[in-house]
Amino acid sequence: MMEAIYQYAWLIPVLPLVGAMLVGLGLISANQATNRLRQLNAVFVISLMGAATVLSFAILWSQIQGHAPYTRTLEWAAAGNFHLSMGYTIDHLTAMMLVVVTTVALLVMVYTDGYMAHDPGYVRFYSYLSLFGSSMLGLVVSPNIVQIYIFWELVGMCSYLLVGFWYDRKAAADACQKAFVVNRVGDFGLLLGILGLYWATNSFEFGEIGERLQTLVESGSISSFLAVVFAVLVFLGPVAKSAQFPLHVWLPDAMEGPTPISALIHAATMVAAGVFLIARMYPLFEGIPAAMNVIAYTGAFTAFLGATIAITQNDIKKGLAYSTISQLGYMVMAMGLGAYGAGLFHLMTHAYFKAMLFLGSGSVIHGMEAVVGHDPVLAQDMRLMGGLRRYMPVTAITFLIGCLAISGIPPFAGFWSKDEILGAAFATNPLLWGVGYLTAGITAFYMFRMYFSTFEGKFRGNEMEIRHELKSAALVPNFGPGAMDTRELAATASSHDSHDSHGHSEHPHESPWTMALPLVVLAIPSMLIGLVGTPFANYFEEFIYPPSETLAMAMEKAAEFEPTEFYTLAGASVGISLIGITLASLMYLWRKIDPAAIAAKIRPLYELSLNKWYFDDIYDKVFVQGSRRLARQVMEVDYRVVDGAVNLTGFFTLISGEGLKYLENGRAQFYALIVFAAVLGMVIVFGVT
């Protein structure tokens, strides 16, 4: 029976693909009829993802029972010594990722029915969702790095389509282009790395690449510097996809897409693809200490960077986006420190509680739109929220669970996974432990700032003064050609007020069951799933261990547990989280400390955080405006030099043609005269000399 499940495992990515294709074909060939049957299409797509979820759980259970890894491939291309196969592979890492991706995708699809109920693009959205799920699942089961790269690009394409889903909104159109361009930078590095590794090792298989490269470096056939370059180039792919510094700038802007996408792509699955690739390529990275250091320090700095920016964000989704960047930094740091199991454990726990937080933010936005209208500037700003717990109890409780989980409060999931990373950092690199420890405190502060600003206190959504202030600020771009004068600004603000900013209720309301149910379901793993990886009985570590280790080595490592060290580190970690929560309570719940007064005292640091460390401004100056200047200069050269040379050639051809026209007249007497003149000229020249 189990063998049959493995033989049909290819259905897991194919089922959602079938859904996407059939719904997509329906939209192309019979658009109106397909859109009329919107709920039927949704049920069809959700059912196919449900079937993929059941298969994924069956495979995970089989792997837990000890079934050997299974790979099935067929030759896709061959030329001489070059052979490339495609297929699928099932091992412990794949099984875990399949369950994470399918469960989150299924719950997000259910949630979408409520969130997108009134959107005219409802069916198209489900088609894109299904295509994305298929691409991500295809990436997870890939047996070699070329197939991973193919699905890697498909995932990027789906991200582009989904982030820019509301393409008629300029912000969404700009965001999907930014995501696409920034990811191209990382993907180009990944492609160069793949080609370099193939040139060196003559293989695309994960295990073989690592072993052969190690042998080549030891024998001196390839310099260790070149091996580091290849590894870092491959790492550029995860840097872009997992939004690590310096390619992190696309993820917050990508929140312009509908909230279910923020949860599915940018919290749970797509951004986790980068960490997954590091895990898959672990045989390559772990043999190159310099590359491991680059990974660890990049992750640690990104964790700190994301947390420090999240402190000052007022848009609820962008705050969560920077939180995602920070948590991904923890995972990447763990991978770089050699804590393979800890990094993947945090990937799994984070997928559930961050998906719940994003869906919770979508529920808040849905409730706020009843008051402020369909205007993201007003519906997503925490300065207009407050007191929502009274109106949205289910959303508030699940959001609080998510905040406790991400803050690392026991026994919630985030505590076990984050502490395992901090423990590994403390044992191997105390400096990175210090960065991670400080980041844990900041994380607790900004998450509870978000919770208190949104759900506690009095409701501020009907205060027109705040609305006008937010609209005025939103209409002035920071830079670029869109700047308006004050008269334009006033006119635009009034038109926005008349069109977008009117809801139909005085107070927000709880979301429908299709949105509330996924929140409740996700709250369960957010609370309990961490228990599979406690240091007292680390089942996760025994299940997921690096390819270079055996099960016996993993069991032995899991058994090396020192209670005193654990309690000390865990106590310190919980302590700093409680300090962060207390500070957030004093500032945003009890109002004993004025945040504005603190911001005034540390103005430069506050401005640094508020302006996202100025990365967007620097990139705009250097890359956007710089490339425009370069393009203008190239155009000038093209116009003056290239076009000038072509025009000059044409001019000379015209003149010479016109001149020859008068010489070539067909009269014999005229030709005789020319010959006589030429002879006379030669006689004179030679006679003189």
UniProtKB/TrEMBL annotation:
It holds the Pfam family Proton_antipo_N. Residues 142-440 form the NADH:quinone oxidoreductase/Mrp antiporter transmembrane domain. One of its GO terms (biological process) is ATP synthesis coupled electron transport. It catalyses: a plastoquinone + NADH + (n+1) H(+)(in) = a plastoquinol + NAD(+) + n H(+)(out); a plastoquinone + NADPH + (n+1) H(+)(in) = a plastoquinol + NADP(+) + n H(+)(out). GO terms for cellular component: endomembrane system; membrane. One of its GO terms (molecular function) is quinone binding. Residues 76-126 form the NADH-Ubiquinone oxidoreductase (complex I) chain 5 N-terminal domain. The chain crosses the membrane at residues 6-28, 40-64, 93-111, 123-142, 148-167, 179-200, 220-240, 261-282, 294-312, 324-345, 351-373, 394-416, 431-452, 516-537, 566-590, 670-688. Residues 498-635 form the NADH:ubiquinone/plastoquinone oxidoreductase chloroplast chain 5 C-terminal domain. Keywords: Membrane, NAD, NADP, Plastoquinone, Quinone, Translocase, Transmembrane, Transmembrane helix. InterPro entries: NADH_UbQ_OxRdtase_chlpt_su5_C, NADHpl_OxRdtase_5_subgr, ND/Mrp_TM, NU5C-like, Proton_antipo_N. It is a multi-pass membrane protein. Its main location: membrane. Residues 496-510 have a biased composition (Basic and acidic residues). Belongs to the complex I subunit 5 family. This is Oxidoreductase. It comes from Chroococcidiopsis cubana SAG 39.79. The lineage of its organism: Bacteria, Bacillati, Cyanobacteriota, Cyanophyceae, Chroococcidiopsidales.
